[in-house]
Write a structure and sequence with these properties.
Shape: globular
Helix content: 40-55%
Structural class: alpha/beta
Protein name: Methyltransferase type 11 domain-containing protein
Largest sheet: 7 strands, mixed
Bound molecules: S-adenosylmethionine
Number of helices: 12
CATH architecture of the domain at 6-75 and 102-189 and 217-247 and 302-309: 3-Layer(aba) Sandwich
CATH superfamily of the domain at 6-75 and 102-189 and 217-247 and 302-309: Vaccinia Virus protein VP39
Number of strands: 10
Biased composition (Polar residues): 93-103
Region (Disordered): 78-111
InterPro entries: Methyltransf_11, SAM-dependent_MTases_sf
CATH topology of the domain at 6-75 and 102-189 and 217-247 and 302-309: Rossmann fold
Radius of gyration: 21 Å
Organism: Thalassospira povalilytica
Order of helices and strands: HHHEHHEHEEHEHHHEEHHEEE
Distance between the termini: 37 Å
Length: 311
């Protein structure tokens, strides 16, 4: 049984807010794959270097909205590039084409169906001093935006949680300007994500609640070919997909599964006894111990980045 109910996320928003700052450096690293896939430089050229409008869907408390906003912020502490004395003098390094490439700029509209997530995101953006971002609660299956409003639509680990993901894909396509691009980061199958497989098995054994029982289906875009077909059916062209499997290196004494576990099952864990929580940690360590090398966990995560254009 999966229902991907927004209520589930509402009860998890405090867990997302709690972990967000500590997870931000790791988030920034994987978000760059989405920024590359969006190809902001080409879009900016297409728009005559006008500022780009990005819509991030199911933003939670800020990812990848913050990364896109940083990528599109006006550069600070840099001499303006393009034209003038820099051109007259010629580039210091003839391979350095970036010296003559204007930095794409723009604004990010972040959104999520859960207002508490949006509030957390707004507070974090203010703390971080990110100026080129605004936040609006929005259901990605029924977007409150006109056709042709955005140059980029992004969504990290969100589309699979919609009740009707195909409707959400069509909505993304609708709000894109011609030539604009949608980029989705989606989980690869559970078998390629040992952390999630361990969580599902351990919580299922000890609390009787795995992904199915929690009403969460993170892996429904795991099959690349099927996911690309879904994008095509929604109207996208020039569809691309890449797969990434980074593995962190975390000292074995660190219960590194806690953030993900809280952010997906925090509402259930809050009611668990101390004894159950201890048993969960022991079983997670045991299940993931084959990934310990040199005193460090090296557990890969695996995800796809799908992108498609509106013709
Ligand atoms: C796994 S979290 C991902 C959050 C963020 N993008 C990230 O990667 O850190 C999934 C998010 O999708 C949101 N969500 C679920 N269904 C949604 C819908 N129909 N429209 C918009 N957001 C939705 C949830 O509220 C939650 O914040």
């Amino acid at each position: 049984m999966t229902n991907n109910s927004p209520n589930t996320w509402q009860h998890l928003s405090s867990d997302w807010i709690n972990w967000a700052d500590r997870l931000a450096p790791a988030a920034e690293k994987i978000n760059r794959h989405m920024i590359e896939a969006a190809d902001l430089e080409t879009l900016a050229r297409l728009r005559g270097d006008a500022p780009l409008d990005v819509l991030d869907l199911a933003s939670g408390v800020g990812e990848p909205a913050f990364s896109f906003a940083r990528a599109l912020a006006a550069p600070t502490g840099e001499t303006a590039t393009g034209g003038g004395a820099a051109n007259d003098a010629g580039p210091a390094n003839s391979n350095d084409v970036s010296a003559n490439t204007p930095h794409p700029s723009g604004h990010v509209t972040a959104s999520d169906i859960v207002p508490e997530m949006c509030d957390g995101l707004a507070a974090r953006a203010e703390e971080e001093g990110i100026a080129n971002i605004s936040v609006i609660p929005a259901d990605m299956e029924n977007l409150p935006f006109s056709d042709h409003s955005f140059d980029v639509v992004s969504c990290r680990f969100g589309v699979m949680f919609c009740n009707d993901p195909d409707r959400a894909l069509r909505e993304s396509h609708r709000v894109l300007r011609p030539g604009g691009r949608a980029v989705y980061m989606v989980w690869a199958p559970m078998v390629d994500n040992p952390l999630f497989a361990a969580m599902d098995a351990v919580l299922g054994n000890i609390l009787g609640i795995g992904f199915d029982q929690a009403g969460l289906d993170p892996f429904s875009f795991g099959n690349i070919d099927q996911s690309m077909d879904r994008m095509e059916t929604a109207g996208f062209t020039g569809i691309t997909a890449t797969t990434h499997s980074p593995a962190g290196r975390i000292p074995e004494k660190v219960a590194f599964w806690k953030p993900q576990m809280d952010m997906l099952f925090g509402n259930v864990l809050r009611d668990a006894s101390d004894m159950d929580r201890g048993a969960i940690d022991a079983a997670m360590f045991e299940t993931l111990s084959p990934y310990i090398e040199d005193g460090h966990f090296q557990v890969p995560i695996c995800f796809h980045v799908l992108s498609g254009k509106r013709a």
